[in-house]
């Protein structure tokens, strides 16, 4: 039997939908997502350049998801998260969406917010969408969110909320404002720092939540993507220099400053959940959508070290990303989950936790992993399709429970490299973790639970920073950049997690290689062509009072006053 069908059948049988659960008892679900944040930029992974106290405290009190895989870029990752399907099934496997591009999730597709809404949740998104905005129906509130405050594009300026796009067909650049409260242009918020603004809006959602209704809140931050002029923007350069002057590379210094604002946002959100007596019945997830961008225009100063590859690469630096989960509902807490998970797993996992009937989900690639995570049981997943780009042929798959990966080709020789090693500038700030808003909020939950202490933090960090210590990885004599894959490459991720040695010619691995190639060929047969389009010349913000509007619902858009057009 096909493995996929096998699991679907099995899950259908063993899942016990909790029909009749009181609405008020369903857990609140809070997802906080960082953008282009590197896997080495959370200090629990071992970096001694900066401490991220809130994110670390969330993981140490809950579960650190050590092998959480995403897609390699924004649009595909967000599509996978919201649909539970690999992007090859929704046409989203290609390049990220441009502002002014008419592309969207398929009509009628089940999305995580819509499914939760059908179970009685109120559903809210604050921040980035990046899954289409040609018509109102393509935007967050057309795809299952009750409310959205944020932007529809891939990124915006951190203060001005402007975004440009190149219109190839007419060789022009379109520029427009992109900050919306549902469909209304939020001009009055222009000038506020994005991380502060999105945090403020997230806190409002939590405060205004009816306490008898379960809440799904997705906070999809701009940080730590690049903003205006392709730079990460900071709140206050003077404060940044005072705090992080020890970091020489200015791009990196800005990144670290923006990263700590993001970390503080996590603290404020968890603190607010506790204040509102919601944390005791919440599931809080923090993750990055893909690896840090190491090269080119959008290089943000993030680090995936010692993993190989940038955002866009199918090497682990692009797809094996930081993720942690905290919930009082976990049966086992304070440990590192070391089996593979994929971003598509969240939909069935959370739907099932919310009492949904898994057998009603159609064509899932994700698995319900709640028991795996909550009880440290084996992952339900044997393989992960990293992606297939049917136009370039660039593709990859991980199989054998995460041990082996084949990649066909390369995104570019610049993306498939190792980023620089970070300097060890500071001592790991354990008191900052113990005193973080996240740790304090969790401590207030239940006086009899196991508290974090210096020793438990050190133990957990040792496990979750294995990559940084591992002599297979960091200190490997193969550490100089290995050859770029020109056709198929095979990597043994257990022996060589940093993908330094291509085993494609290894006689003893031929059965594994043909097995993985056969699985990849299966997925090739199932893919729907990518739906990328050129930027539509009719999307020009100059027509819409300087804003990106849903131009295919033109009659609903604010028009530029006549006199300013001429
Ligand atoms: C911060 O430091 C950078 C580089 O050292 C410098 O160029 C910049 O002017 C400084 N900014 C402020 C506000 O001090
Ligand atoms: C491998 O990639 C090449 C392009 O580099 C492509 O032509 C070929 O179809 C791909 N093969 C498979 C089996 O994916
Ligand atoms: C507090 O924790 C204990 C032990 O983990 C548990 O038995 C008890 O139900 C918890 N109480 C509350 C109010 O969550
Ligand atoms: C048009 O844009 C200006 C900013 O350029 C803004 O102040 C004004 O409120 C907008 N008009 C409408 C109707 O949204």
From TrEMBL:
Single annotated GO MF: sulfuric ester hydrolase activity
Organism superkingdom: Eukaryota
Domain named Sulfatase N-terminal: residues: 27-355
Signal peptide: 1-20
Keywords linked to the UniProt accession: Calcium, Glycoprotein, Hydrolase, Metal-binding, Signal
Cofactor: Ca(2+)
Family: Belongs to the sulfatase family.
Annotated protein name in UniProt: Sulfatase N-terminal domain-containing protein
Source species of the chain: Cryptolaemus montrouzieri
Lineage: Eukaryota, Metazoa, Ecdysozoa, Arthropoda, Hexapoda
């Amino acid at each position: 039997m096909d493995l996929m069908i096998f699991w679907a059948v099995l899950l259908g049988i063993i899942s016990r939908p909790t029909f009749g659960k009181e609405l008020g008892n369903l857990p609140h679900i809070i997802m906080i997502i960082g953008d282009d944040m590197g896997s080495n930029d959370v200090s629990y992974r071992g970096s001694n350049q900066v401490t991220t106290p809130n994110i670390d405290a969330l993981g140490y009190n809950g579960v650190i998801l050590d092998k959480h895989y995403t897609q390699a870029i924004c649009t595909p990752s967000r599509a996978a998260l919201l649909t539970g399907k690999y992007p090859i099934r929704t046409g989203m496997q290609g390049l990220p969406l441009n502002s002014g591009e008419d592309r969207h999730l398929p009509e009628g597709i089940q999305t995580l917010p819509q499914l939760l809404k059908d179970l009685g949740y109120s559903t809210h998104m604050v921040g980035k969408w990046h899954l289409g905005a040609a018509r109102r129906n393509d935007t967050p509130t057309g795809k299952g969110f009750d409310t959205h405050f944020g932007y529809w594009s891939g990124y915006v300026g951190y203060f001005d909320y402007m975004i440009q796009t190149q219109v190839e067909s007419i060789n022009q650049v379109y520029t427009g404002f992109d900050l919306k409260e549902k469909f209304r242009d939020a001009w009055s918020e222009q000038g506020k720092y994005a991380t502060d603004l999105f945090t403020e809006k997230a806190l409002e959602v939590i405060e205004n939540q009816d306490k008898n209704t379960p809440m799904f809140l997705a906070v999809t931050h701009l940080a730590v993507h690049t903003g205006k002029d392709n730079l990460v923007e900071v709140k206050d350069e003077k404060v940044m220099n005072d705090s992080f002057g020890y970091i020489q590379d200015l791009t990196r210094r800005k990144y670290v400053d923006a990263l700590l604002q993001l970390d503080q946002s996590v603290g404020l959100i968890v603190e607010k959940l506790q204040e509102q007596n919601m944390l005791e019945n919440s599931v809080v997830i923090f993750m990055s959508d893909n690896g840090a961008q190491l090269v080119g225009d959008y290089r943000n100063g993030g680090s995936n070290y010692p993993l190989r590859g940038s955002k866009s690469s199918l090497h682990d630096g692009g797809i094996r990303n930081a993720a942690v989960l905290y919930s009082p509902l976990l049966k086992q807490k304070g440990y590192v989950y070391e089996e593979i998970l994929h971003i598509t797993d969240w939909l069935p996992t959370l739907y099932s936790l919310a009492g949904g009937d898994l057998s009603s989900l159609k064509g899932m690639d994700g698995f319900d992993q709640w028991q795996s995570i909550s009880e440290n049981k084996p992952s339900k997943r044997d393989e992960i399709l990293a992606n297939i780009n049917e136009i370039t042929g660039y593709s990859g798959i991980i199989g054998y429970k995460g041990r082996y990966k084949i990649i066909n080709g390369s995104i570019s020789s610049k993306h498939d490299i190792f980023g620089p090693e970070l300097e060890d500038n500071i001592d790991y700030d354990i008191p900052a973790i113990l005193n973080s808003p996240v740790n304090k909020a969790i401590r207030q939950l239940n006086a009899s639970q196991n508290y974090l202490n210096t020793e438990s933090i050190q133990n957990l960090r040792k496990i979750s920073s294995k990559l940084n210590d591992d002599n297979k990885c960091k200190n490997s004599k193969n550490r100089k950049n290995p050859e770029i894959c020109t056709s198929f490459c095979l990597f043994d991720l257990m022996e060589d997690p940093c993908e330094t040695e291509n085993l494609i010619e290894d006689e003893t691995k031929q059965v594994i290689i043909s097995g993985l190639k056969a699985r990849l060929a299966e997925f090739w047969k199932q893919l729907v062509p990518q739906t990328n389009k050129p930027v539509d010349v009719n999307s020009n913000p100059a027509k819409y009072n300087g804003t990106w509007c849903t131009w295919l619902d033109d009659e609903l858009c604010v028009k530029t006053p006549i006199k300013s057009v001429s």
